UniProtKB/TrEMBL annotation:
<keyword id="KW-0328">Glycosyltransferase</keyword>
<protein>
    <submittedName>
        <fullName>Glycosyl transferase, group 1 family protein</fullName>
        <ecNumber>2.4.1.-</ecNumber>
    </submittedName>
</protein>
<keyword id="KW-0808">Transferase</keyword>
<dbReference type="GO" id="GO:0016757">
    <property type="term" value="F:glycosyltransferase activity"/>
</dbReference>
<dbReference type="InterPro" id="IPR050194">
    <property type="entry name" value="Glycosyltransferase_grp1"/>
</dbReference>
<dbReference type="InterPro" id="IPR001296">
    <property type="entry name" value="Glyco_trans_1"/>
</dbReference>
<feature type="domain" description="Glycosyl transferase family 1">
    <location>
        <begin position="196"/>
        <end position="332"/>
    </location>
</feature>
<dbReference type="Pfam" id="PF00534">
    <property type="entry name" value="Glycos_transf_1"/>
</dbReference>
Length: 378
């Protein structure tokens, strides 16, 4: 099988997945090609090494513009590139409303029907942005042209067919996943190792870390989390750590410089993020809107208990049993109660449950093999 993936930009969190997909396809006498609509987007602050990509890829020339906060890409040569590769299947990732996706989808729907067209959808009931007006009408028309949908869970499937009202199409299960080996906390990791990492960022060596890895933007619940944190009477020796960049960062640093338990570490390479996770005690993602955050999976591999919200699309797959809590509200009383429970619980045991869960359900090799098995049957 020849698989073509069309998506917006290269991202560090997709490289491992694409590498494994390519490896499995090669073992099956198939191949993968990825076409990127652009090299990057203005609000993406990560560092990425394209040499880590062990598959055929191309950044296609095109036109790029920011419209109402969205980054729009149009690549006229996408049809030519597709024809040259001549895939059996096209997996469209990124956004359904990217002009390049619409252009390719509609052309191949009416003029070249031999390609199987699959849309990788991670939306859910808590991430819908446009419920009225012309947008849902246009969306329904476009997305009904796909032959199948790849979704991470039942919640996303229900979103497509029940909430959006799309025509029933075949569903391919594709949980978001990461390089689990890279993020697995080694058994040799010690308190001394954690102390060294904390000292790099001027954090007290004996501090316990409540860490959030996310963009410093309003949709990540940063402001609410800080407000709740500052109201806590007893922090039980914890410090609140943010890893990431964003438009709110400088203002939040200035507003909270009087609180020595709050730390903004900026964007960090994945190796540093891994070390910070290993050195932390609890992971939190106080998001207001996240289709399927990979950071929850990374933190689980790092043996961390989880606090997140109902607006994380994979919250019910990540928080299972006694490894964490899912917040339904942003109020202080709920946060205080959950933090108190976590701060006085056995976080080591909770973190072990997180690890066992992702190792069982998010193993990257198994996810990729199962995904391709399903695609071959479409």
């Amino acid at each position: 099988m020849k698989l073509l993936i069309i998506t917006n930009i290269p991202t560090p969190y997709r490289i491992a997945f694409f590498n494994v997909i390519n490896r499995v396809l090669t073992q099956r006498n198939g191949c993968l090609k990825v076409l990127y609509a652009a090299a990057s987007e203005p609000d993406r602050h990560w560092s990425i090494d394209l040499n880590e990509q062990q598959f055929d890829y191309e950044i296609v020339k095109g036109f790029h513009k920011s419209v109402a906060g969205l980054y729009v890409h149009f690549n006229p040569s996408i049809l030519k590139k597709t024809k040259q590769f001549n895939p059996d299947v096209i997996l469209y990732a990124g956004s359904w409303n990217m002009p390049t996706v619409i252009y390719s989808l509609l052309f191949n729907s009416f003029c070249n029907k031999k390609y199987k067209k699959i849309f990788w959808s991670e939306g859910h009931d808590g991430s819908r942005l446009h419920a009225a007006g012309i947008v849902p009408v246009v969306r329904k028309f476009i997305q009904n042209k796909f032959d199948a949908f790849a979704v991470p869970n039942q919640r996303s499937e229900s979103y497509l067919f029940q909430l959006l009202g799309l025509e029933r199409k075949p569903i391919i299960l594709l949980p978001n996943t990461v390089d689990g080996d890279f993020f697995t906390k080694p058994t040799s990791w010690s308190e001394a190792d954690s102390a060294i990492i904390k000292s790099k960022y001027s954090i007290p060596k004996d501090a316990k870390l409540l860490i959030q890895v996310a963009q410093i933007e309003d949709r990540k619940g940063i402001k609410e989390l800080i407000q709740h944190w500052r109201k806590l009477e007893n922090k039980f020796g914890y410090h609140l750590v943010f890893v990431g960049e964003g438009s709110l960062k400088d203002a939040l640093i200035a507003d909270n410089e009087d609180d020595t338990t709050i730390h903004f570490l900026g964007n960090q390479p994945k190796e540093a993020v891994r070390e910070l996770l290993f050195s932390s005690t609890i992971f939190i993602l106080n998001t207001k809107n996240d289709p399927n955050p990979l950071t929850l999976i990374e933190a689980s591999y790092a043996h961390l208990p989880i606090i997140t919200t109902q607006f994380a699309g994979n919250c019910n797959e990540i928080v299972v049993g006694n490894n964490g809590f899912v917040l339904n509200d942003f109020d202080f009383e709920t946060f205080e109660l959950v933090f108190l429970k976590m701060a006085t619980a056995s976080t080591i045991e909770m973190g072990a449950l997180s690890f066992e869960n992702v190792k069982t359900h998010f193993d990257i090799q198994q996810v990729c093999e199962h995904f391709l098995n399903q695609v071959e049957k479409i």
